[in-house]
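step=encode ok
step=design start
structure_in=
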């Protein structure tokens, strides 16, 4: 669907992000490569959302650098992000997607077909006329995915997209993630759900207190974590 991928790899080199009162990311060095989804896990406050925002280009390093395809300061025209609690426009579903297509400069004559394909992809075909704010939480998250995909991103960042959703809604989101990934979009996702990480991830990045504790292919990470902290986290113990 999207080849080549000029924004990949996304490389963090000694990245720190600080506020006046806290250091949020601490000396992060990691490369996000093309391929299956990269899933960020870790305790609350570990830096997952900050890393996603920085990789999107919404936050700039205090020190260190981030490159996209070997270049710094690349505009996020081929990247998209869906936040944990996406804001729905006070419009119908189709108008929410049309807004995103307009923002992506898609010609109006192409929009009806694109809109139908996007809504079908996320399982909302037939709900075009429903007000977006009357959708269920899971349906709103799927509509947010359709809006993000309107710009045909090479990389899609998802911040805990199934948080607070029931099992059926969670499965629907996971199925969409698999479909998107199969079409060639690189998915980078934060989740607190280890089961979800097992089901979706090609690569795992474990963060704690703003630092990367371990990164590894998902099968190896879950079968034989290399660090004590990873073993503790998988066992359900608190990381201190």
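sequence_out=
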């Amino acid at each position: 669907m999207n080849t080549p991928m000029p924004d990949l790899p996304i490389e963090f080199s000694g990245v720190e992000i600080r506020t006046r009162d806290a250091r949020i990311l601490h000396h992060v060095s990691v490369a996000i490569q093309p391929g299956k989804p990269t899933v960020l896990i870790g305790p609350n406050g570990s830096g997952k959302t900050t890393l996603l925002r920085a990789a999107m280009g919404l936050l700039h390093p205090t020190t260190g650098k981030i490159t996209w395809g070997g270049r710094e300061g690349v505009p996020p025209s081929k990247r998209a992000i869906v936040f944990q609690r996406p804001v729905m426009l006070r419009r119908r579903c189709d108008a929410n997607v049309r807004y995103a297509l307009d923002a992506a400069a898609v010609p109006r004559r192409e929009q009806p077909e694109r809109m139908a394909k996007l809504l079908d992809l996320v399982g909302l075909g037939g709900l075009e006329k429903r007000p977006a704010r009357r959708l269920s939480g899971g349906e709103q998250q799927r509509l947010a995915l359709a809006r993000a995909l309107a710009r045909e991103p090479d990389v899609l960042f998802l911040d805990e997209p199934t948080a607070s959703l029931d099992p059926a809604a969670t499965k629907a989101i996971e199925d969409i993630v698999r479909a998107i990934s199969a079409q060639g979009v690189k998915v980078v996702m934060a989740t607190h759900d280890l089961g979800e990480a097992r089901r979706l991830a090609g690569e795992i990045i474990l963060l704690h207190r703003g630092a990367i504790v371990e990164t590894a292919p998902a099968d190896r990470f879950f079968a034989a974590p290399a660090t004590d902290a990873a073993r503790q986290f998988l066992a359900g113990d608190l990381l201190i």
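step=design ok
step=annotate ok -> The chain has a mean pLDDT of 94.
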